[in-house]
Amino acid sequence: MKKKNQSIRGMHDFLPKDTIYLQIIEKKIIKILKSHTYKEIRTPILEDTEIFKKSIGGNTDVMSKEMYSFYDRNEKNISLRPEGTVGCIRACIQHHIFKKSLFQKLWYYGPMFRYERPQKGRFRQFYQLGIEVFGFSDPIIDFDLILLTIKIWNKLGILKDLILEINSIGSINNRKNYENDLRIFCEKKIDKFNLDNFRNVILNNPIRLLDSKNINIILMMKNAPKLINYLDLSSQLRFQKLCNYLDQKQVNYIINHKLVRGLDYYNDTVFEWKSKNLGAQDTICAGGRYDQLIKNLGGPKNSAMGCAIGIDRLFLLKELFKKKIIKNNYFIDIQIIFSNPEFYRFVLDISDQLHTIWPKLKIDTNITKISVSNQIKHAIQNHTKFLLILDSYLLSSNKIIIKNISLRTQKKEFFYRIFQSPCIFI
């Protein structure tokens, strides 16, 4: 049996019916970012593997198991980017952006790659929209970034379906001290809780045990050291300050002391927005502070805060705002319907004239040899506003049929302005 050509496992296609929603989601988010003076930066999907080793951490799952790394023809080790922050900072350092100003507000959007086990909401090629703020260490920026995400969810109409979880993981030194004690504790419990399969995680990256779903790990961690007890005074005060800001603004949130990030460069504030409608992979936005990363990558000492929105997972929530999108964003403004092939040139002339007056109109000429009934069916499927019907008999009298098939009513003067000839409205 001949093998079918299919996409690579964990990498999926977005069909035209899907990209309609994606474009609307992207447009709404980008509009908010621009209104808050964030500037776009675009970086390559390929980076030197070494830059990820310096930043992500060699003991993380991302670095040890999930990277798409390979040698190019010059025997240089390069990787498909697993996330966007590192490439963004590398570009800022390389092009001396921080020399102009330590304070920068940037965003980017594109595909990321991780070799994970594919499931709903988890793909090997996935799309993230990242938001980064450089130059401010005060938790007011953490608060401001969370407020920005709230504005995005409000714009998409999904805020009521999301839950905000926050935590402080302290400074990098706090975390190292905690990991050492946690490792010692867990090593004594491996046999008791039958966790030999997790020995490597316990030895190399024990903090990842905090958010594990494994029942034996959950039981073991009940009596394990608590990260909150290892925070120094500075980290405690800044986290309390953030909570006060959120309380004053009446933002609903949950403090989740088990919330950590899977990358080594984070410190202090971490947060996630989760949905109850996505199952196990329920995080649609995650971020936190990473004040040492820029310096570690060869740049100046500069604080930083950022987050990434998982567009794939946001797309899975489309049913929450699908009706609203269809109602307020028709796919086609005008479809020109005709039966006589002699009208081909005339149809293109009409379309060109319409676009000259209103460049943003979405017009479907559908110049194919299909029946009028199928043309109308196509128009209905694409949520068309108006049919512009060319009838041979009426055209001989210099008349055009205009049919409103949308839910909206439109002024007839709209078409009188386009066509300086009689129109029949039906």
Descriptive keywords:
BirA Bifunctional Protein, domain 2, five-stranded mixed beta sheet, alpha/beta, Rossmann fold, eight-stranded mixed beta sheet, 426 residues
Plain-language structure description:
It is a single chain. Helix 6 (139-156) packs parallel to helix 10. The protein has helices at residues 16-35, 49-55, 61-66, 85-94, 97-100, 139-156, 172-189, 199-204, 215-221, 233-248, 293-296, 311-316, 322-328, 344-357, 372-381, 392-395, 413-418, and strands at 39-40, 46-48, 68-71, 77-80, 104-113, 125-134, 162-168, 254-255, 267-275, 283-289, 304-310, 332-338, 363-364, 384-390, 400-404, 423-425. It has an eight-stranded mixed sheet with strand order 1-5-6-11-10-9-7-8. The chain has a five-stranded mixed sheet with strand order 13-12-14-15-16, sandwiched between helices. Strand 3 and strand 4 form a beta hairpin. The model is unreliable at 409-418 (pLDDT under 50). The chain has two domains: 16-170 and 231-322, BirA Bifunctional Protein, domain 2, CATH 3.30.930; 330-425, Anticodon-binding domain (Rossmann fold, 3-Layer(aba) Sandwich). It has 426 residues and is α/β, with parallel strands linked by helices.
| Morphology call | elongated
Q: Could you describe the largest sheet, including whether it forms a barrel?
A: 8 strands, mixed
Query: What structural class do helix, strand and pairing data support?
Result: alpha/beta
Q: N-to-C terminal Cα separation, in Å?
A: 54 Å
Tell me roughly what share of residues is in helical segments.
25-40%
Assign the CATH class of the largest domain. Alpha Beta
Catalogue the unreliable spans: 409-418
Radius of gyration: 27 Å
From the 3D structure, determine the CATH topology of the largest domain.
Answer: BirA Bifunctional Protein, domain 2
Strand content: 15-25%
Query: Which sequence of strands runs across the widest sheet?
Result: 1-5-6-11-10-9-7-8
Overall mean confidence score, pLDDT: 87
CATH architecture of the largest domain: 2-Layer Sandwich
How many helices in DSSP terms?
17
Q: Tell me the name of the CATH homologous superfamily of the largest domain.
A: Bira Bifunctional Protein, Domain 2
Q: Number of DSSP strands?
A: 16
* Structural domain tally: 2
